[in-house]
Amino acid sequence: MWSALVNGVLWTRDNVVVASDNPRSVGALHGNCLLDDLMRVTVATSQATAAHRRFRRVGGSGKVRSRSSLTRLCLFLLGTLPAIALYCINAYERFGGLWDKSLWLWYKMDTRQLGMDPAWGPFNPRFLPQAIYTAFFLGPSFSSDFPWIVPTPAGQSLLTTSPALLLALRSGNGRWWLCVVLSMAGAMTVYSNGVSQLGARYWLLALPFLMMLIAETPIDGFAKILIEASVLLNGYFIWVWNWLGL
Hints:
By secondary structure, the chain is mainly alpha-helical. Helix content is about 50%, strand content about 10%.
């Protein structure tokens, strides 16, 4: 489902929304048409509900009843059906088939301009270094004019937009980290790092799982500093973006 997030026609906005009745369940949306937004709501909701309904409290006793593995698997598959249906409808309306080909079409147009071999394809491990650089090292640019520090169209690293995500490193929950790895495995091999973005938008795919990791860690003084820094950085760069553009 994440491929819809990286195709070239949905570059206008990124939003983070609460996707379930628990405010810690956060889903990421990206897009500019109703069907795409509905699909992202469904995907985000499926992720959030699957995360928070593994266990269920019975009555007021506080006892926790664990669902069987088969029940959880069936509920997960059931929750993905609306997202799969919307994905197929979207692909069929745009391309006449059940597979979204937009990224492949963009790649064919970009290969000559970017000097890439068409045989590589839009997903290739050779693009991993660029993705790592974008996610962890790409910073804002300096301008001689006010306000001096401005975002770049290529994006920015997670550390310069949302340093609070570092709190996820405090958690050793292997399942959530596996979800982060699986959700980002394909996105980290895309030929384009996202462009025309504030931050590293592909990482919105892993945001629900990173938020779950953060929710398991204590919120001490250091954590509050990182959270406040994230709010200030996002507020500043959004202000600059709205004022100057990218």
